[in-house]
Amino acid sequence: MTPLSFRDQPLGLLKKLDWRVRHAADSVLSGEYRSTFRGKGMEFDQVVPYEFGDDVRDIDWNVTAKLGEPYRKKFIEEREVTILLIFEDSPSLQFGSVERTKREALLEWAALIALLATMNRDRFSILYAGPQGTWFEKPARSRGTILYNTAKLMEQPEVESSSAPVEIPWKFIARAVPRNSMLIWMGDFPPGSEPESWPAIRKRYQTLGMRIDDPWERALPEGMGALCAFDPVTQEMVLLDPTSSRDQQRHQQWKQERDSQFQKLFPDPYGRLALSSEADLLDGMVQFFKKRMIRRVH
């Protein structure tokens, strides 16, 4: 599928994404989304007769054996879930060798998650962190408020190259967002140190990391000679030679360090997802949710 153009106005882009998300949520995403962001109520209520269509995983085999007919466990439904989306902006996200930059793809991904939250009536909040500052929108359930806040995120101007590090206010998050919320951290996750508060954050919230990869980051282009690429971090032109064993080795080392950092922050393979900037992001999420659902069943 051709990526939607960011030349469109944010609300216009949201409307274009909306119908796709509605179709996916009604057809293939409902159970998988619930497994990823909501889970299942774990407070036991009572044992009731099993009826056609009930989840066979809830069958109480002890009671079934005693009474000679199937009975299942009934659980109290979980309370509403709060989703916090952290968008960590950085100059490196402005790189792109295809139709859209990593930043454009990541913002579209954020919009897809926001739309899913509105359709499941989740409380949704956004924290934006960039070199120029940070802003936070408190959890809201209103569709209008969520779409307005998402449009605000998508309108955020591209960050300029800066030596100022991006600071995510983790201590503020612990006060502003309820415990056991779903925390979705979107960023570039370059090689570096782990935030000091991250172990405590992982214990307090359900954490999920999401990253966009440019095709050139996954593998240097083949069949091409030396080429120039603009580095948005250093604001310089960089000469790359895919045929050079030295450049290939340096690229592999950087890739391994970057992947290692991502895995260190999100050690659970079902708690992190990296998609290509040229991929269908909604389809990528569907496949990811299905894998999480299968893992939960087993």
In words, what does this structure look like?
The chain is α/β, with parallel strands linked by helices and 298 residues long. It has nine helices and ten strands. It has helices at residues 10-38, 61-67, 102-119, 143-154, 170-176, 198-204, 215-218, 245-265, 281-297, and strands spanning 43-49, 71-76, 82-88, 123-130, 133-140, 182-186, 206-213, 227-231, 236-240, 272-276. Strands 5-4-3-6-7-10 form a six-stranded mixed beta sheet, with helices on both faces. A two-stranded antiparallel ribbon has the order 1-2. Helix 1 (10-38) crosses helix 3, helix 1 (10-38) runs parallel beside helix 9 (281-297) and helix 3 runs antiparallel to helix 4. The protein starts with 9 loop residues before the first helix and ends with a helix.
